[in-house]
Design a protein that fits this description.
With 750 residues, the protein is an alpha+beta fold. Helix content is 45%, strand content 24%. The chain is built from 24 helices and 27 strands. Strands 7-6-11-10-9-8 form a six-stranded antiparallel beta sheet. It has a six-stranded antiparallel beta sheet with strand order 19-18-17-22-21-20. A hairpin with a 5-residue loop joins strand 15 (353-364) and strand 16 (370-378). Helix 21 packs across helix 22 and helix 22 (634-651) crosses helix 23 (676-693).
Length: 750
């Protein structure tokens, strides 16, 4: 059990508290009366919690001692006091106590307060660990990341951002973001309005224009690109912003070099022997090839004579899909004599498809004939490079989109939908699905994107189709690239399933989670095979490129991160809900506690004062409950309290009515929009419900079973009336019911 340090200047009270704590199983590590001694023991013994009397003898009082213990050792403190003025209460609240007990208090109250305080401390430590993990994650991102509050002041900067800007996070925290990110246009030199401030102001993602330069702390200029996004709370309100940016100075330099290299290549290619031709188009429509360079044989894989037979021979070599565009170019050239450049594909005898570029210039002879001079260049390599580059750019953009989706959203389904949709678009496949694996080896398709093939969403797979050796294979991080599923060496079940789904080729990438546990280290994290990212080609067989497989692996890695982030977020929400429940619900009876009573009756008082509608309050006290505990024991007393609470709860029907545990054996019922008649009806219902329980009570002087005395007060709140006077009136009516013989109700109308 938890170790508790008692700091109480009244020794009798201190020993009573210690006895109560030890009865509940807590370990009392110390029992002192001076604040100075309490600080020393807290440093030496590191208790789990300190019970601190506010008023202490000595140089420092309980509040000062609590402040030192909280600030130096981060140990939770619960205050004990018999009374305190407003100034003392304000000082106590400023130390962020974990509880506040007013003397005299019952042991059950002490136990509840300590349990709540220790649980809150544990949740705060878990939250702090989560925040530290998130900070480490952001620091591991390859892009610079800066976060601000809603005023644009920096609250976080990762290491990459430090390296790019030249600012240390400790220097930048609290500064306006435009003091750290000095941005201007590289071509005009004009200052650029900070995108992060714009994103916060407009509530939308904002991106820097091209040629945006960052002036770092030491004056260095860096070319950057970015995306700035507002941060919203659960209600959609903008709370700040986050900007993810990268230094693209080197990339731009390389792109410039690439453009220069392309220009040099074009110049060189223009001067190298290509297929040089001269063709005569006569007025009578006949065509004669006047000249054709020897490279024609290499490019078209046919003899020179074949082309010299006429224009139709070259058109016959053109790919059917490109022939019409070349024909139109010829006709336009003959009519306008304008130069043209045409690119298309040719089919050569070897069966290969080549890309060619035809550059043509024309002139009209004196007799009206047209002479065409041109150059045909094999551009197959260039086209393949362009297509590969385009695919690579698309893949990089897809990866960036997925990463951004992870950064700005914790909606797990949204992330999965983005992944399967964009992967199918970029890879031009028929089906992309995400398969989640259950602990028993079975699994189910939880998300997919399909074109014109049957869907598999919700399809389940038994462990027979996913045996343990398959699980081990994927758990080790291996991928499967299958060009022909009919030749798949794995189970017959899988081959039959692929045939049924019409899958000809597929890629399977494991989604591996790396988790820290008590038995693992950072160098050897726990591995969990969460599921599989699967790509299907159904229309035709496909030879998968290594770049495509690598892209899928990277996406799988980001998916694993997204899943863990989503799970952490859900756990945090659950913890917050549990904490909220602990704060406002009585642990024994599971009805609202005194704190919730104070909060709710104040809310209803204010609201009904505005609306000028009635409010009624019922206080119920179990008759001779001390005798009940003495006769039947405290466990039976607890059971009795639970049953009485349930009976009272069953007596109120409206959602706005609230049953609370007001004290030890005392319950309160708040009845908004209820006059005296309605309150009496509820009170009678409560008495009947309690009588129906027929809980034996031989110690009662009014009946052989448990009964309750009830006090009722009703009023229409006004700004001038006092809530405390209303509660006191209810308490007096309860006292009157007891004085008149118990097992009855009395009424007080204000």
């Amino acid at each position: 059990m938890a170790g508790i340090l008692i700091v109480e200047n009244e020794r009798v009270a201190a020993w009573n508290i210690q006895a109560g704590l030890e009865k509940f199983g807590y370990t009392v590590v110390g029992n002192v009366a001076l604040g100075e001694k309490a600080v020393d023991l807290a440093e030496k013994l590191k208790p789990d919690l300190v019970l601190m009397d506010i008023r202490l003898q000595g140089e420092i009082d309980g509040i000062e001692a609590a402040a030192r213990i909280r600030n130096q050792f981060q140990i939770p403190v619960v205050y004990l006091t018999a009374h305190a003025d407003d100034q003392t209460l304000e000082r106590a609240i400023a130390t962020d106590p974990y509880g506040y007990l007013t003397k005299p208090f019952k042991r059950a109250e002490l136990h509840t307060t300590i349990t709540t305080a220790l649980h809150r401390c544990q949740l705060e430590k878990q939250l702090q660990a989560t925040q530290q993990w998130l900070t480490s994650t952001l620091n591991s991102i390859g892009d610079g990341t800066i976060a601000t509050d809603q005023e644009g002041r920096i609250t976080f900067m990762n290491r990459v951002a430090e390296a790019i800007t030249g600012w240390q996070e400790t220097e930048a925290i609290g500064k306006l973001v435009n003091q750290v990110l000095d941005l201007y246009h590289g071509e005009t030199g004009q200052e650029i309005e900070n995108p992060l401030l714009l994103a916060i102001q407009e509530g939308l993602p904002v991106q820097l224009p091209e040629q945006s330069l960052l002036r770092t702390k030491d004056g260095t200029e860096r070319l950057i690109d970015d995306v700035a996004t507002p941060i919203r709370d659960a209600f959609g309100k903008v709370q700040g912003g986050v900007m993810v940016f990268r230094d693209i100075t080197e990339r731009q330099r390389m792109q410039g070099l690439l453009r220069e290299s392309e220009a040099r290549f074009q110049t060189l290619a223009a001067n190298l022997p290509g297929v040089i031709y001269r063709v005569l188009h006569r007025l009578d429509g006949s065509v004669e090839c006047l000249y054709l360079s020897p490279c024609f044989q290499t490019l078209f894989e046919m003899e020179l004579e074949s082309f010299q037979q006429g224009r139709d021979s070259i058109l016959a070599a053109i790919h059917p899909d490109d022939a019409s565009s070349l024909h139109r170019a010829f006709e336009t050239m003959l009519q306008t004599l304008q130069a043209y450049t045409w690119e298309g594909r040719i089919l050569v005898p070897s069966g290969r498809i080549k890309w060619i570029q035809m550059i043509n210039r024309s002139s009209r002879q004196a007799n009206g004939d047209i002479v065409c001079d041109g150059l045909i260049v094999d551009i197959s390599d260039r086209k393949r490079t362009e297509q590969a580059l385009q695919r690579q750019m698309q893949r990089e953009r897809l990866l960036a989109e997925i990463a951004q989706q992870i950064y700005k959203s914790l909606d797990f389904n949204e992330i999965l939908t983005t992944v399967v949709t964009r992967v199918r678009e970029i890879l031009q496949v028929d089906r992309v699905l995400i398969f989640q694996i259950n602990p028993d080896g079975s699994g189910v398709v939880i998300q997919e994107s399909v074109d014109s093939v049957p869907p598999t969403l919700g399809l389940s797979f038994s462990d027979k189709c996913f045996p343990s050796d398959c699980y081990e294979f994927y758990w080790q991080g291996h991928s499967r690239v299958i060009g022909d599923t009919s030749e798949d060496e794995w189970s017959q079940c899988l081959r039959e399933l692929m045939q049924e789904l019409g899958v000809k080729s597929k890629v399977v990438i494991p989604i591996i989670q790396h988790q820290e546990t008590a038995t693992t280290s950072l160098k050897s994290p726990a591995r969990k095979l969460w599921g599989l990212l699967i790509v299907h080609a159904c229309d035709d067989y496909r030879q998968w490129e290594s770049q495509e497989v690598d892209l899928l692996r990277q996406i799988s890695h980001h998916l694993a991160i997204a899943i863990q982030q989503s799970e952490l977020y859900q756990k945090l929400q659950q913890a917050n809900q549990q904490l909220e429940c602990l704060v406002k619900i009585d642990a024994l009876t599971q009805v609202a506690n005194r704190r919730r009573f104070d909060e709710y009756i104040q809310q209803q008082w204010n609201q009904l004062a505005r609306e000028q509608k009635p409010l009624s309050l019922i206080l119920c006290d179990i008759d001779f409950f001390k005798r009940y505990n003495d006769t039947y024991g405290h466990p039976a007393g607890d059971t009795c309290l639970v049953q009485i609470a349930q009976a009272i709860n069953c007596s109120v029907k409206r959602p706005a009515d609230l049953v609370t545990r007001y004290g030890g054996e005392e319950f309160a019922v708040i009845l908004p929009n209820t006059d005296q008649t309605g309150a009496v009806h509820v009170a009678i219902t409560i008495q009947n419900q309690v009588r129906q329980l027929q809980l034996d009570h031989i110690g009662s002087s009014v009946a052989d079973y448990v009964t309750v005395s009830i006090g009722i007060a009703s009023t229409v709140p006004t700004d001038k009336s006092l809530l405390q006077a209303f509660i006191a009136a209810t308490d007096r009516s309860l006292y009157q019911a007891k004085q008149q013989g118990r097992d009855r109700y009395c009424i007080k109308t204000l």
